[in-house]
Amino acid sequence: MKIAIIQENPVVGDVGGNLDIALKSIEKIKNEQPDIVIFSEMFLTGYPPEDLLLRNDLYQSLDLTLKELAKHYPELHIVIGYPRKKNKKIFNAAGHIYQGEIKAEYFKQELPNYKEFDEKRYFSPGKGPGLITVKDKVFALTICEDIWYTKAIRQATRRGAELILNLNASPFHRHKLEERKSLLRKQAKKFSVPIIYVNQVGGQDELVFDGSSLVVSPGSGVDFQLPSFQTATGILNFEMKDGVFKLINRSEVSEVSDLKNLYDAIVLGTRDYIEKNGFSGALIGSSGGIDSALTATIAVDALGSDRVKTVMMPFKYTADISVEDSQKLADNLNIQHEVIEIQEIYNSFEKSLKKEFKGKEKDKTEENLQSRSRGVLLMALSNKSGYLVLTTGNKSETAVGYSTLYGDTAGGFAVLKDVPKTWVYELVNYRNTISQVIPQRIIDRPPSAELAPDQKDSDSLPEYKILDEIIELYVEKDLSLTLITEKGFDEKIVKQIVNLIDRSEYKRRQAPPGVRITERGFGKDRRYPITNRYFH
Description:
The protein is an alpha/beta fold. It has helices at 15-29, 56-71, 119-122, 151-158, 176-191, 258-276, 290-303, 320-333, 343-352, 354-357, 364-385, 395-400, 421-434, 440-444, 464-476, 481-486, 491-503, 505-509, and strands spanning 2-7, 36-38, 77-86, 89-98, 101-107, 130-134, 137-143, 163-168, 195-199, 201-204, 207-210, 214-217, 221-225, 232-241, 244-247, 281-285, 308-312, 336-339, 387-391, 413-414. Helix 15 crosses helix 17.
C-alpha cells in the first residue's frame, strides 16, 4: 500500500487557488503511483475560515470545486478536507473521492472551542466513524481534535479499521510538537493501530501552522516526519505484517532545537501575512534597540533584503550609538536604510499645542508625541511604497501597555507581539549563530525607549526575567494575584504588573495582529472585556 501525504499551504477563502494547489501537488507525485493521497483539514477553504462559513455562496463554490477535483485522477483515492452544509447544519468534513465522485464523507465529532478555536460557533458534531476501503483494507477518517480523544478511534477500530488517517489544521505554539507526538504514541499503542497525521503549514493572521506531519506506529513510535514550517510531500510505503500495517520506508526523525522552531514560526507567519495580503515589502522603524533589530532580521529572512527597508528617526534623546547601530544592522542585512529627523515635526506639534498645554508640567504626553511623530512618518512611507509597517513591540511591553497608541503601535503587523522580552534575547542569540547580523552592542545595551534623558526600561518595570514570569502566570496560566505571590514574587510588584495588564486591554484591542507562538497570546486566545472591574 502506497500513501502520499500532502503538507501544503492553502489560503483561506481561495477555493479555486486551493484546488490548483491540490491538483499540482498530485501531478508532482502521480508517477509514484500512490493508492491514496491525503490532504489536510478544511484544505479547500483554508483554516480557519471563520464567518465565511456563514455564507451560502461559499458552499456553491465548494460544490463546483469538488466536482472539478473528482474529474481528475479517477484512479486515485483522494482524501481531502472541506466544510459541508447539510440540512441547514454545517460540518467539518473529510471527503473520500474516487472514480469521479465522492464515495464517502466523515464529519468531525470532537469540536474544539477553547483558546483560538471557535468550532462550536459554526459546526455541528458528526456521529459515527468514517470508514473507507482501499484494496480490501479498511481505513478510518478522523479530523484533528478527534485524535485527542478516544471515541472516534474506538468506533473505527471496533469496526475493523486497520489504519487511522487524521487530517489536521493544528496551530503551532512552543512545545506543541512534543505534545502531539506524546499523544499520538499513546493513542497508537492503546488501540494497536498506526496513525497518519497530516497537518497544514503556513500563516493565517495570528496563527501559524507548522506542518510536521507524522506517521506513528504502535510499537516503534514516530516512524516518519515531514519538515516543520515547509511545504512538503511524503510517500509512505506500507506492508501488512502479522496483521498490522508496517511502514517500510521508516526514517530517523531528527530533533530540532526549540529556538529554531520558534524562529521559523515567526518568519513563516510574517512572510505569509505580508504575501497573502498583497503587500510589496516590509518597513520597520529602527531604533538601534534589540526589538527593532530582531524584527528587521526576521523580515529579511521572510522576504529577502530587497523587500525590507528600515528608517531611523532620531530625536534629541537618541544616543549616537543608536544611530550608528541601526546603520550597522542595515549594512549587515544589506537593506535600504534612511535617517529622518523628527525634531521639526515634534516642534510643530508643541507649537500647535502651546496654548492648550500652558501652565501644565511636562509628562508622558511629550514622550508620546515623539513616538506619534515617528508613527506618522512610517505610515506615510507605507502609503507611498506599498510596504507594510511592522511594529516592534514584544509581548512583555504589550502586556503592561509599555507602548504608545498611534505611535510605536502604528502599523499592520506586530512580529514580536507574542514574544516575551527574555525570548527576544534568546532568539537574537540563536539567529546570530546562523550569521552574525545583529551587532553585539545592541544585545549588550540596557533596553531603553529613549524618550527622556538617560531613560531605561528598568526605571518603571522590574527586570524582564521577573516580569515575564509574572505575565506567564497571570496571562497564560490564569493564576490569581495571591497564587502568583505565593510562588515567591514580591506582592507589590505583582499588584503593579497585574494592574498594568488589566488597564492596558484597550491598547491591545487597537494594536495590530502578530504571530502567536506561546500557549496563550493576546488575541483570539484571550478575550477580556475592556470595561472591567473584576478585582483579583
